[in-house]
Amino acid sequence: MDIEALKQTAQAMVAPGKGILAMDESHPTCAKRFEKLGIPTTEEKRREYRNMLLTAEGIENYIAAAILFDETIRDNMLSGVSFPEHLKNLGIVPGIKVDAGAKPLAGHAGETVTEGLDGLRDRLAEYYELGARFAKWRAVYNISDSTPSQAANMANAHGLARYAALCQEANIVPIVEPEVLINGDHSIQRSFEATQSAQQLVFDQLREQDVVMEGIVLKPSMVTSGLDAADKAGVQEVAERTIECLLSTVPAEVPGIAFLSGGQTDEEASAHLSAMNSLGKDLPWNVTFSYGRALQQAAMTTWNGSPDNVDAARKVAAHRARMNGLASLGQYSEELEKEAA
Ligand code: 13P
Known about the structure:
The protein has about 350 residues and is of the alpha/beta class. It has a single domain (about 5-340), classed as TIM Barrel, CATH 3.20.20. About 45% of the residues lie in helices and about 15% in strands. It is built from 13 helices and 10 strands. An 8-stranded parallel barrel has the order 1-2-3-6-7-8-9-10, surrounded by 6 helices. Strands 4-5 form a two-stranded antiparallel ribbon. The protein is globular. The termini are far apart. The structure holds 1,3-dihydroxyacetonephosphate. 1,3-dihydroxyacetonephosphate binds near residues 138, 261 and 294. 1,3-dihydroxyacetonephosphate binds near residues 138 and 260.
């Protein structure tokens, strides 16, 4: 294990003013988003779409790393250059989703445990050869009256820690992603409690497995009200409660925290991130984004599967990358959105 290389990669992934582009949708997830827009769910269309994203002008100024799916890391851009090579040429670190998805947790209706440890050591070695310098594993926690259960918290934290240790052994930085889902009508306080206990157990398990904190990136969900909550917390409260939670769970040695967007609107995701970086607190880690939908959805809608829309879609993708790059410095504002419109 080359600890220096791991530290350097982790720091590069969360460099100031930049964040991570999550473009690692599995085939079913990508199909769901394409089908909504009437885009054919073929390998060619996925390639064209991802080619469009990664040829948006100037994204390398705001995107430090990109998470790919297995199909894409083995695939070529329309220019013939491989996707990981193209990223490297732009100075963007290529990474790979390695979990095998959240599967029903036995005996715990409505809860899941993320699988994918079997054979992971060999897969990581191959992905390193293909150019990946970081990986991603997502654990999912569902808030209801009786969940997340301690059983789900334990199983998911253990999986994340075993994955993270295997990654570091292979000189691959693990993105550790515990996602507390936004779905439901819960209060922000309930979200705070579920997020804090999930993160606490994750860090307990990471320490137990001797994971080097300087060589990981945490990808958490924000502490928010549920999507269907009657009384929703505002931007400032989300920023304050999220940072309060992270300060109570995340060791100062962790170089960066890169949030998922989790179903927030594009503007919400940018505003929340910017507010966290404007609290005036001296945070020990860089706080940035690792968005999927909040970086992509608008561009995908503009593209709509047609070569005629590629240039317009690139502009939309570049705009969202810039908005979130500014948010990671606490410099995002609604006026900037309007200027671009
Ligand atoms: P969203 O930002 O769309 O939640 O996706 C991020 C991600 O990588 C989920 O695993």
